[in-house]
Amino acid sequence: MKTSRREMAAMMAMGGVGAALSSAKAAPPPEEARLVHHVFFWLKTPGSQADRDQLIAGLRMLKDIPIIRKLQIGVPAGTERRDVVDASYDVSELMHFNSATDQKAYQDHPIHQAFVKSCEHLWQKVLVYDMEVVPDP
């Protein structure tokens, strides 16, 4: 099979593009979060929609702390009730940090301190689970 000059030029150009792409330095992947901070809140007035909304609004202020990699806020899911599921809390927050040092910096951050001061009257109990992420092998 004979290749025309035009086809040959096109193949060479494609090869050049592929070589250029493969030789370009790829950006390093973003650093994975290494610490997960999960907090559960029980309201002083269980079932109070106003208190729940106020707590959620306060938690949303925390997104302005730049050291937080990811922030999610939630309420108990309407999943099947089982002995191993604790849905007794009212509101939960899940945060991801790069390190325990970053999580400590979050604890001391003025926005976090303002959140605690403005919302602590809403909860009767807080339970925290901190987890270091085990890297994949």
Describe the structure.
- The protein has 137 residues and is of the alpha+beta class.
- It is built from 4 helices and 4 strands.
- 37% of the residues lie in helices and 23% in strands.
- A 4-stranded antiparallel beta sheet has the order 2-3-1-4.
- The longest helix has 19 residues.
What's the arrangement of secondary structure elements?
Layout: H1 5-23, E1 35-43, H2 49-61, E2 70-74, E3 91-97, H3 100-108, H4 110-119, E4 123-132
Antiparallel strand pairs: 1-3, 1-4, 2-3
Helix pairs in contact: 2-4
Concise structural overview:
This protein is of the alpha+beta class and 137 residues long. It has helices spanning 5-23, 49-61, 100-108, 110-119; strands at 35-43, 70-74, 91-97, 123-132.
Largest sheet: 4 strands, antiparallel
Report the structural category: alpha+beta
Rg from alpha-carbon coordinates:
25 Å
Q: End-to-end distance, in Å?
A: 49 Å
Amount of beta strand: 15-25%
- Report helical residue fraction: 25-40%
Sketch the topology as an H/E string, one letter per element: HEHEEHHE
Strand order of the largest sheet: 2-3-1-4
Tell me how many strands there are: 4
Q: State mean pLDDT (0 to 100 scale).
A: 87
Number of helices, where a helix is a run of at least 4 consecutive DSSP H or I residues: 4
Low-pLDDT stretches: 17-21
Shape: elongated
